[in-house]
Specification:
Elements (H helix, E strand, L loop, with lengths): L1 E2 L5 E4 L4 E5 L5 E11 L4 E8 L5 H18 L4 E7 L5 H5 L3 E12 L2 E11 H6 L7 E3 L4 E4 L5 H10 L1 H4 L13 H17 L3 E7 L2 E12 L5 E8 L8 H15 L5 E7 L3 H9 L3 E12 L2 E11 L1
Parallel strand pairs: 5-6, 13-14
Antiparallel strand pairs: 1-2, 2-3, 3-4, 4-5, 6-8, 7-8, 9-10, 10-11, 11-12, 12-13, 14-16, 15-16
Helix pairs in contact: 4-6
InterPro entries: Acyl_CoA_acyltransferase, GNAT_dom, N-acetyltransferase
Pfam families: Acetyltransf_3 (PF13302)
Family: Belongs to the acetyltransferase family. RimJ subfamily.
Length: 308
């Protein structure tokens, strides 16, 4: 048994299972050791946590387990398997990397759900070298990394703006407007962020999601290029929020990510988007015929670019 800062304790109930209790002696979670390999100094743990309302307690629990296993057991690699509805913020803040998403892996009451696999080495844990959750302040808005915790926000956003966005985005079937699909999309986006290929951000005004913006197809080497795309709530247009979001992300891409070039494309008749890009210093590159499939049809687009 070992105690943690938040006055909780972990008690061993079998050779591979532990119970996590809070200061009142109430069980808040369970730890099951799936694999413990002394030769490779690695451990795979299945974590079940029941107090979704207490993220700080979850973080302290994970932190203490890692500290014990890395420092006392002298492990090098530690991996956690968790349910896809568990708040992943503590893993992000502690330096874990999302190593895999096992779709339709667990069956409960006949319903298949997915699980996440997070991993960290003792070096990463002690130095906190892995990326933390991204948040960028603009003049009028704030950009936040869209992790799976924002599933309900994104679902509400797309349902509310379904008619508004259908003329600017790919054709969506009914499954797109469900919690499970939105969570799957955000999980994949989060994995791409950790892998450095894209950044999917929410545009927030007073902690309310009003739009989204992303850098995709991020390439370094001699190109150092990315593509920017965005959308905003129908009722938030014309307030300068999107211009602020584009400027904020482009400045971050140039100054923090050290990219050299950002490219964007708009539909031929999307004058509002074109005006945003021009006001943010983008230059018209030309017309791409049948460039993207929008709402079921291949559409011509005007491409723009901006260099550092």
């Amino acid at each position: 048994m070992f105690k943690m800062k938040e006055v909780i304790e972990v008690s061993k109930v079998s050779s591979s299972e532990y119970i996590i209790k809070d200061k009142n002696g109430i069980t808040v979670g369970r730890i099951h050791t799936i694999d413990f390999n002394r030769n490779s100094k690695s451990c795979l743990i299945r974590l079940k946590y029941y107090r979704s309302d207490n993220v700080l307690l979850l973080k302290e629990c994970i932190n203490s387990i890692c500290s014990k296993l890395f420092n006392i057991k002298d492990l090098f690699k530690l991996s956690f398997i968790i349910d896809d509805d568990l708040n992943i913020t503590p893993f992000d803040e502690l330096g874990f990397k999302l190593e895999g998403i096992l779709d339709n892996n667990i069956s409960e009451n006949g319903i298949y759900t997915s699980v996440y696999l997070f991993g960290i080495t003792s070096i990463q844990f002690n130095n906190r070298t892995t990326k933390l959750g991204l948040s960028i302040e603009g003049k009028k808005i704030k950009l936040k990394l869209l992790t799976p915790q924002y599933t309900n926000d994104m679902l509400s956003y797309y349902i509310k703006n379904k008619t508004h966005l259908e003329n600017f985005e790919p054709l969506r079937d009914s499954s797109f407007y469900t919690e499970s699909i939105q969570k799957k999309i955000l999980s994949e986006n989060y994995r791409q962020y950790l892998n450095g290929t894209s950044i999917n951000l929410g545009i927030f005004k007073n902690d309310r999601l009003i739009g989204k913006i992303q850098l995709s197809n991020i390439v370094y080497g001699i190109f150092k290029n990315a593509f920017i795309g965005y959308s905003i709530d129908e009722n938030e247009q014309g307030k300068g929020y999107m211009k602020d979001a584009v400027n904020t992300l482009v400045n971050y891409a140039f100054n923090e990510m050290e990219l050299h070039r950002i490219e964007a494309s708009t539909l031929i008749d999307n004058l509002k988007s074109q005006n945003v890009l021009i006001s943010c210093g983008f230059t018209k590159l030309g017309i791409n015929k049948n460039y993207l499939n929008i709402n079921g049809e291949w559409k011509d687009h005007i491409s723009f670019y901006k260099t550092r």
